[in-house]
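Our consortium's second objective concerns turning raw sequence data into structural hypotheses that experimental partners can test. To show how far this objective has progressed, the report includes one record in full. It was chosen at random from the queue rather than selected for favorable results. The single chain below, 280 residues long, was entered without modification.
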Amino acid sequence: MDNSQAMSPSQIVLIHGLTGSKRLFAGLEGRLRRPPTSADTLSFDLPGFGENKDVESRYDVGDQLNFITGTIERRFPSGPLALVGHSLGGVLALAWAVHHRDRVSWIVLINTPLGENRDDIRRQLLHDRFGWGAVLLNHRRMAHLACVVLRGAQVIRAFYFAKPAYVPDEVFDDYTAHRWRAIAETFDRVLLGVPGAALVRAIGNVPILNLTGCGDAELSRRAIIQPNVHNAMLPGGHLMLLEHPDSTAEAIARFLNDGASRNVIYPGGTHIEGRSHDDD
């Protein structure tokens, strides 16, 4: 069906990214539950993360989507949905939408990696030699050891002094509330194996807001130029949802409440409708 004229959503599902948890969305959910959106929201921890760290899974896209489907159907068994995904959660939101086109009327991508293929994604991750993606690609054993030590001995608490002030303690704690296998295999099977750009291009009748941060990595700053996609760049990096919560939440609320009009002005943002990463 054509979802381009849908009214504002009453049911919003939020999906976190790799190493994240549902607590990342606490502030945004509060905003979306209040007028003018006044929606019912659902956030949850993916298998292997947060409260669901002990849930068994193969951590491939099929298992992830099955888990998401079961969670959504228990809370929102019918009716149109808005999907909001942060980082890898945006890729999962897109993949779920491809398989449930009759239910999805809005998609919001926040700092989502929109790679063209596996080689493109690897190449971009390796640009940052000390980034988590490059470490997972080049130093898997070291990353595994660090994960075990930080989680098992609660060493992560010694780094509280170094965390940005805008990151709440509970979100910081959740960086270690995961299984190593969940991180490694989700990274391999979903982040590397499911190119986000192809998924966006497979969805032509659902309004998509692609919110990027000007300080984020190139892979998560890409614009997709097609009629149903609204690209906007806001201040901040990969955690702009925490770093600049008001402007990020305002951009999302305007998109959802204004019928995804292409005339919406995003506060503090830069429209990038006319260029993609291929233009660089």
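The partners drew two points from this record. The mean pLDDT is 86. Strands lie at 11-15, 40-44, 81-86, 104-110, 208-213, 229-234, 270-271. Both points have been shared with the crystallography group to help prioritize constructs.
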